[in-house]
Write a structure and sequence with these properties.
- Strands 5-9-8-6-7 form a five-stranded antiparallel beta sheet, with no helix packed on it. It has a two-stranded antiparallel sheet with strand order 1-2.
- Helices cover 2% and strands 25% of the residues.
- The model has no long low-confidence stretch (mean pLDDT 77).
Length: 170
């Protein structure tokens, strides 16, 4: 049968420790220091540094490259940022207007529904902030998630899975 030797377990050489990827590769990470002192709940504002324009090394299937975001006025489009502060959530507790509040922005919740709205399971739903109820997506309504149950005409509530995404009215 050839030169095969069977060694008892105690005679086997010790297994080398497995090297982690961190031992062999350097990883790029992103970190941000949150500065809650810049938040002004009464004015509903917060300072944001979107980019410093500093070069950043990136890697894709073609290899490494350096990315540098332009800060020139013609290269910066903030139109999609307008209204981005609209985050729909379910309050964890009662609070006075302007006071800090913890919101659940994801999860499944039973919410009031426009009586005439007809929603199928999986249908995209939107919040009508004037009527304070879920409805089908439309002008002036904020997309918030999907219906997790069917709710037809005459039904006054629906179970919705919130998607946790900042929304802007359609």
């Amino acid at each position: 049968m050839g030169d095969t030797a069977i060694l008892p377990l105690d005679a086997m050489p010790p297994r080398q420790a497995r090297k982690s990827l961190a031992d062999e590769k350097s990883f790029l990470t992103r970190r941000a220091t949150l500065a809650p002192a810049t938040a002004d709940p009464k004015a509903r504002t917060v300072e944001v540094v979107w980019s410093t324009g500093a070069p950043v090394r990136r890697r894709d299937m073609a290899g490494q490259y350096t990315e540098r975001l332009s800060l020139a006025p013609e290269a910066v489009d903030l139109s999609r940022l307008e209204g981005a502060s609209n985050i729909f959530g379910i309050a964890a507790y009662s609070a006075a207007e302007g006071d800090p509040l913890e919101l659940a922005t994801t999860g499944v919740y039973k919410l009031p529904k426009a009586t005439a709205a007809v929603l199928a399971v999986g249908a995209r739903v939107a919040w009508d902030n004037t009527a304070k109820q879920v409805n089908t997506p439309g002008a002036g309504r904020f997309p918030i998630g999907i219906a997790t149950e069917a709710a037809g005409n005459g039904v006054t509530s629906v179970t919705v899975r919130l998607d946790g995404v900042a929304t802007a009215a359609a």
